[in-house]
C-alpha cells in the first residue's frame, strides 16, 4: 500500500513555530517519510527538520535533494560531483545525521554530464552516505537516461488527477508523487485557486467543467488516485490545519468503483517537452 509522506517546501510560510508544529503533528499522525531540499527557504527547512527530530533519526525515512544553487539573481543548476559532494555534506550537517535514506538529484537536463553525476551518486550509496539514489525530474529524456545508465532507485515527479503524464512512460520504478493536490485545485478551495492560466495541459475552461464532477471528499479521491500509481504520495502543508485536513483525507473511505470511473475518464496527457 502506498505511503503518505510530507513535503516540507512550504512549512515555513507562517514562521518557524508553525513549521515545527506541522512536523510534530505529522509525526504524531504516523508520518515517517519526510522530504526536504537544501534550497527550501535558503537551507532553513533542513535546519528545522534536523532540530525538530534530533534524537528520533532512526524512526524516520529522511530525504533531501541537491543540485540547485541559490544565487543573488535566483537559481542556477550545478550537477557536478564537486558541487554535489559539498551540497550533500552540508545537508547532512543541517539535518543532524550522517546518512540519508534517499538523496535526489534535484532536476537536470540532457545536456548535463549525467555520467559524472550518476557515478557520484553510486559512490555515495556504496559508501553508505545515502541508502537510495533518487532523481527528481519532469523531463522524460533525463528520466530515461538515468534508467538506462544509472543505478536509480526512486523517481520523484509530479502526479495528480490533473497531471498523469508519468503514466505514459510505463516505468518499472517506485515513484514518489509530488503535488497530488495540484496546487490546491483538488481541494474544496479549487474555485479560489483556479486562474486563467489553467493547470498543465488543462485550460481554465476545461477545469471549470471537470473539477465539479470529481467525487467528494475531493482530497480523499485525489490522494487515493495517487496511491494507485505512486509508492509514496507527497503532499505539502503550510499550516497545522492543512496538515490535519490531509491526514483526514488520507484516512477517508472512497468508493473504488467511483475512483475507477474517475481514472477512466480523466486523460493521461503526453509529455510535450524534453521528449528526446
TrEMBL record:
Residues 3-261 form the NADP-dependent oxidoreductase domain. It is an enzyme of class 1 (oxidoreductase). Pfam families: Aldo_ket_red. Transmembrane segments: none annotated. It comes from the Bacteria. Keywords: Oxidoreductase. Its EC number is 1.1.1.-. SUPFAM superfamilies: NAD(P)-linked oxidoreductase. GO terms for molecular function: oxidoreductase activity. InterPro entries: AKR, AKR2_Oxidoreductase, NAD(P)_OxRdtase_dom_sf, NADP_OxRdtase_dom. This is Aldo/keto reductase.
Amino acid at each position: 500500500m502506498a505511503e503518505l509522506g510530507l513535503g516540507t517546501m512550504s512549512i515555513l510560510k507562517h514562521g518557524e513555530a508553525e513549521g515545527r508544529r506541522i512536523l510534530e503533528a505529522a509525526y504524531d499522525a504516523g508520518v515517517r517519510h519526510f522530504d526536504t531540499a537544501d534550497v527550501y527557504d535558503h537551507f532553513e527547512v533542513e535546519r528545522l527538520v534536523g532540530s525538530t527530530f534530533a534524537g528520533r533519526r532512526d524512526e524516520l525515512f529522511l530525504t533531501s535533494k541537491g543540485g540547485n544553487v541559490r544565487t543573488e539573481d535566483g537559481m542556477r543548476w550545478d550537477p557536478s560531483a564537486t558541487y554535489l559532494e559539498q551540497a550533500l555534506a552540508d545537508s547532512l550537517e543541517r539535518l543532524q545525521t550522517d546518512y540519508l535514506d534517499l538523496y535526489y538529484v534535484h532536476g537536470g537536463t540532457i545536456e548535463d554530464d549525467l555520467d559524472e553525476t550518476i557515478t557520484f551518486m553510486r559512490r555515495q550509496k556504496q559508501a553508505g552516505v545515502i541508502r537510495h539514489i533518487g532523481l527528481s525530474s519532469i523531463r522524460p529524456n533525463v528520466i530515461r537516461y538515468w534508467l538506462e545508465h544509472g543505478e536509480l532507485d526512486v523517481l520523484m515527479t509530479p502526479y495528480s488527477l490533473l497531471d498523469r503524464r508519468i503514466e505514459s512512460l510505463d516505468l518499472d520504478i517506485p515513484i514518489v508523487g509530488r503535488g497530488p493536490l495540484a496546487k490546491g485545485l483538488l481541494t474544496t478551495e479549487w474555485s479560489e485557486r483556479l486562474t486563467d492560466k489553467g493547470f498543465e495541459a488543462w485550460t481554465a475552461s476545461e477545469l471549470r467543467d471537470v473539477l465539479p464532477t470529481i467525487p467528494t471528499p475531493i482530497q480523499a479521491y485525489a490522494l487515493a488516485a495517487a496511491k494507485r500509481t505512486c509508492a509514496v504520495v507527497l503532499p505539502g502543508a503550510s499550516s497545522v490545519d492543512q496538515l490535519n485536513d490531509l491526514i483526514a483525507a488520507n484516512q477517508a473511505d472512497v468508493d473504488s468503483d467511483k475512483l475507477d470511473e474517475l481514472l477512466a475518464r480523466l486523460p493521461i496527457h503526453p509529455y510535450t517537452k524534453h521528449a528526446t
